[in-house]
Amino acid sequence: MEGFYGTPQSHSGSQKHAQVMKGPIQVAFDITNKCNFRCAHCYNNSGENNFVSKELSDDEVLNFIHDIAKLKPFNFCFCGGEPLLRLDVLLKSAKILASHGVIVSLVTNGFLLTENIAANLYKNGVKRVQVSIDGSNPESHEKLRRVPKSFDRAINAVRHFRKAGFKDISVAFCPTKFNYSEIEQVYELCLSLGVKDLRVQPMMPLGRASQNLDFIPSVYEYRKIVSKIMQLRNRSCDKIMIDWGDPVDHLVRFRTITQHCVAYVSILADGSIAVSPYIPLLVGNIRRHSFSDYWEAGLARIWELPMVKKYADPVFSVTSMGKKREGEPHVWFDEPILVDIVENQLI
To answer: Rounded to whole angstroms, what are the CA distances from 328 to 175, 278, 284?
Structure first.
């Protein structure tokens, strides 16, 4: 998701933009926390965390979608959990958003995808998709994903998307100690599948990943990964982009350069509005007030609040993300702090 955060602006420019922005540019919505996998590196404990258990009903999801569609975000991404576990409401939601000119995206492990589902997703307005492939072979992929046959199903998912007409297909790859040397093979695999983007992002020590720290590459191994990515980027004849994502980038940028105008919003499966998925602070819930109400209350300027900076400041690198701090909830393990910006009129 880091690829959608936008570009830095000057403080004065971002203040002006905050005053005229009708709505967010990028919305990430966990349509469910349920998941058919229990991946070793899952940062948000999908399927197991106990504080996102009361998910929005189908009617609540559709009310939210109708509300936010009027604000016309540039891109709306269905995340999870595994979004395909709520296929019916996902299709209805995508159709509504697309009818308002919103680019609709989806991230999936691909296991549940069929030709028919891919065709229905495309027909109902989904245009960007991302499938996770964490190795060049079943052994590597399934050591991380923990589900037999998941490698073949992920490959087939990309093929189903291609057959359905999708042009904007990305693959997410998480390097580990046992698969980092396969990055070039994964790149070649993506080329053969007609993938547009290969997105590589470090393993974040949050959620289940915090229990599998021995999977995380060393500094030396990460340097080898980045070096290989730079080499692959120089192959200009290839019709594929390869990106190295920095999950901490938005935390640094939002609290400094673009604090007066933040165009990215994250909504959890229970309707909570998260400042960032990586800090234990919520600023509202669409069950309490509509998303439009939160936007009017100053959600675009949420990073001006000292409280937000307090929780974000200690997170300055990937290694600092999972540290338990005294007096603070442990991210994706403990109940986060809720401060409602509508009810408290903080901005």
So the answer is: 29, 13, 18
- Asked if 66 contacts 96 with a C-beta cutoff of 8 angstroms, the reply is yes
**Which tokens belong to 145?**
């994903």
Q: Which residues of 154-193 are buried (b: 16+ CB within 10 A; e: fewer)?
A: bbbbbbbbeebebeebbbbbbbbebbbbbbeebbebbeeb
Answer yes or no: are the C-beta atoms of 259 and 304 closer than 8 Å: yes
**Tokens encoding 54:** 């009361």
Give which of 29, 20, 28, 33 is closest to 4, Cα–Cα.
Answer: 28
Q: What is the bridge-based pairing of β-strands 197-200 and 168-173?
A: parallel
Distance CA 159, CA 53 (A): 33
What's the one-letter identity of residue 226?
A: V
Greatest extent of the chain over all pairs of C-alpha atoms, in Å? 55
pLDDT tens digits, 191-220: 999 999 999 999 999 999 999 999 999 999
Give counts: helices (H), strands (E), the chain: 11, 11
Residues making up the chain, counted from first to last: 347
Q: Are 181 and 192 in contact (CB under 8 A)?
A: no
Q: Are 155 and 132 in contact (CB under 8 A)?
A: no
Residue 253: pLDDT band with limits 50, 70, 90: confident
For the chain, the C-alpha Rg in angstroms (whole number) is 19
**Residue position matching structure tokens 């053969």:** 192
Tokens 């991302």 locate to: 130
Which two structure tokens, joined as six digits, stand for 284? 């509202």
Distances (CA, A) of 181 to 3, 5, 296: 24, 29, 48
Dihedral sign of CA atoms 68, 331, 40, 248 in order: positive
The neighbour count for residue 125, using CB atoms within 10 Å, is 19
pTM for this model (two decimals):
0.91
Write down the H helix ranges in 179-334: 183-193, 219-233, 249-254, 291-296, 306-312
Which residue bears the tokens 């933040």? 262
Domains of the chain (ranges; CATH) run: 2-18+25-338 (3.20.20.70)
